[in-house]
Amino acid sequence: MTDDVVLRYSRTYPLAVDAAFDALLPLELPALFSRRYGAIPPIAAVRDQAGPWTTPGQTRTIQLADGGTMREELTAVESPSRFTYRIEGITGPMKPLVTSLDGAWTFEPVGTGVRIAWTWTVHPAGRLGSLAMPLFGRMWRGYARQAFENIERLVVR
After folding, report:
1. How far apart are CA 13 and CA 110, in angstroms?
2. Is the pLDDT of residue 140 over 60?
3. Which of 42, 64, 76, 154 has the smallest set of CB atoms within 10 Å of its CB?
4. pLDDT tens digits for 32-83?
């Protein structure tokens, strides 16, 4: 049995909590995750999404630039404090490392702004996945930092 790995990244922005939540929930994934970091590729496209990404139970397919795909399901929307999702059906280079993951974006007031946090609870794929998690975690944190730079560029105007 493998142990889950929790990865978290956060940053504070000069935005109201509800404005940050309303901007980030429907944000186009290729714009948010536009750059590779180490072995983690950018998101090239999103397929099979019906309407705006706002309702629990919605699903979509994430196409990665390396040819891999993932099926994402929006599991909860608690405006303006958090939304959660689950990723399964991973194909491509990440498949031998990760069976699934649970993700969350949280929004909390801090001073006159908002602290946005992104968390992944990764369920490694067997021994190989468990052994790779320290390196994967370092790459994920770099990938997250780039995404938060994109939040600055796309949301904080």
Report:
1. 9
2. yes
3. 76
4. 999 999 989 999 999 999 889 999 999 999 999 999 999 999 999 999 999 9
Q: Spell out the domains of the chain, with CATH numbers in brackets.
A: 5-154 (3.30.530.20)
Asked if the model's pLDDT at residue 142 lies above 90, the reply is yes
Residue 9 above 90 pLDDT? Answer: yes
Q: The dihedral of CA 91, 67, 138, 87: what is its sign?
A: negative
Indicate the SS3 state at residue 149.
Answer: helix
96: DSSP letter: T
The region that residue 26 occupies, defined by phi over 0 for left and psi between -120 and 50 for alpha, beta otherwise, is alpha
Residues recorded for the chain: 157
Coarse DSSP helix, strand, coil percentages of the chain, rounded to the nearest 5 percent: 25, 40, 35
Please identify which residue in the block is written with the tokens 């939540």: 21
In sequence order, the 6+-apart residues with CB closer than 8 A to the CB of 41 are 64, 65, 66, 68
Rounded Cα–Cα distance for residues 27 and 151 (Å): 9
Q: What pLDDT shows up at residue 157?
A: 74
Give residues with Cβ within 8 angstroms of 81, minimum separation 6.
17, 21, 106, 107, 108
The CA angle 111-116-119, to the nearest 5 degrees, is 145
